[in-house]
Write a structure and sequence with these properties.
The chain is 18% helix and 29% strand. The chain is of the alpha+beta class. Strands 1, 2, 3, 4, 5, 6, 7, 8, 9, 10, 11, 12 and 13 form a 13-stranded antiparallel β-sheet that branches.
């Protein structure tokens, strides 16, 4: 066989001439695997193998194969980097929604939204006073005093959830809120159309990392908050809409979710279980038929105490009985608690509002 160009002539009739080109499909090489193992030995000329594989490719990719049209999406913008605007009182950043940030319907989850808000808030801090080795973009003054900001309340309302591949534009700013608290606001928009998708507000207090207790905001930090706060203040929610009291959960609860164990991977840069983790645990007490047939319109969550990795967390929930005027809206109250030796401590209380999925 060596030195020949038979191309397995017994089973694959074809010509290997460089100038020979079949004019019809019938004249092409038809790939037929050799019937005897000996015919697959390394003694075959390399040209034979090239002829065989070439014929096989032509057979698979034939003129009769289905033709696919590829849609050329002309508008697929890259997310813009974060930037300070309006005399450094506003921070704007864009993010593309990734595949692992959506559910089965290709829409983002509320956990994704909360994570994006947290990410943009941290990047805002980095833009103002640089990166530090402790906490979420903690100001150097705070680092020296072992202080961090910790959320006590977050309220998120979504009019429309972005989908996989969408680019969202998030605008955020902050301001002082009394002697021991600060407030941060967010607006979530479609980066392509400018459509308002959602809004959020939050309240934060100073925590001393050494004592784990609430501390006053240092005067130097208060001056920074005043300097970089918008004037006049721009609120995501009217005062009448935010900080609404969440009702107590009457025990026994209607719904008992699975017991959650705080994992080491749930601990964030501030050294405690991340805020978004609690939010996800609370949603485990939403009835299945609501979770899969309704859409979460608003979530209000109060953080009352922290837990640590290894703690077992109980998740409880009940429906809120109220007249919704035929809108189909459903509301639930949720509670997370940690119980030790029969003594339970409330960690988180939340209220969720659901609308029928569109």
């Amino acid at each position: 066989m060596r030195g020949t160009s038979s191309c397995f002539t017994a089973q694959l009739p074809c010509s290997t001439s460089a100038t020979s080109r079949p004019q019809t499909r019938q004249a092409r090489c038809k790939p037929v695997l050799p019937s005897r193992p000996s015919q697959l030995s390394l003694s075959h000329d390399l040209a034979d193998w090239r002829c065989f594989t070439a014929a096989l490719d032509r057979e698979v990719i034939s003129a009769e194969a289905p033709q696919h049209e590829f849609v050329n999406r002309t508008t697929f913008p890259a997310p813009a980097a974060g930037v300070l605007q309006d005399n450094a009182t506003l921070f704007v950043e864009e993010h593309r929604i990734r595949a692992y940030e959506v559910g089965a319907d290709q829409k983002t989850t509320i956990s994704t939204i909360a994570n994006l808000l947290q990410e943009v808030a941290g990047n805002h801090g980095v833009a103002l006073w640089g990166r530090t080795e402790e906490g979420f973009a903690t100001d150097p003054v705070m680092v020296a005093m072992h202080l961090i900001f910790a959320a006590t309340r977050i309220q998120i309302e979504m009019t429309k959830y972005p989908k996989w591949g969408d680019v969202v534009r998030i605008e955020t700013y902050f301001s002082a809120d009394g002697r021991i608290a600060a407030r941060r606001e967010w607006f979530i928009k479609d980066a392509l159309t400018g459509e308002l998708l959602g809004r959020a507000t939050s309240t934060w207090v100073m925590i001393n990392l050494q004592t784990r207790k609430v501390a006053k905001i240092p005067e130097a930090m208060r001056q920074k908050l005043a300097r970089f706060a918008p004037n006049p203040l721009r609120d995501a929610f009217d005062k009448s809409e935010r900080k609404l009291k969440l009702p107590n959960l009457q025990l026994p609860a209607e719904i008992e979710g699975p017991v959650q164990v705080a994992r080491r991977s749930d601990v964030d840069m501030n050294g405690h279980i991340n805020n978004v983790t609690y939010l996800a645990w609370a949603l485990e007490t939403v009835p299945r038929e609501v979770y899969y047939n309704y859409e979460l319109e608003q979530m209000e969550i109060d953080y009352k105490a922290e837990c640590h990795s290894g703690d077992a967390i109980e998740s409880l929930g009940s429906s809120i009985k109220e007249d919704t005027n035929g809108t189909g809206i459903r509301r639930y109250i949720h509670m997370l608690q940690r119980c030790d030796d029969g003594v339970c401590r409330e960690l988180v209380r939340a209220r969720t509002t659901w609308r029928l999925a569109s």
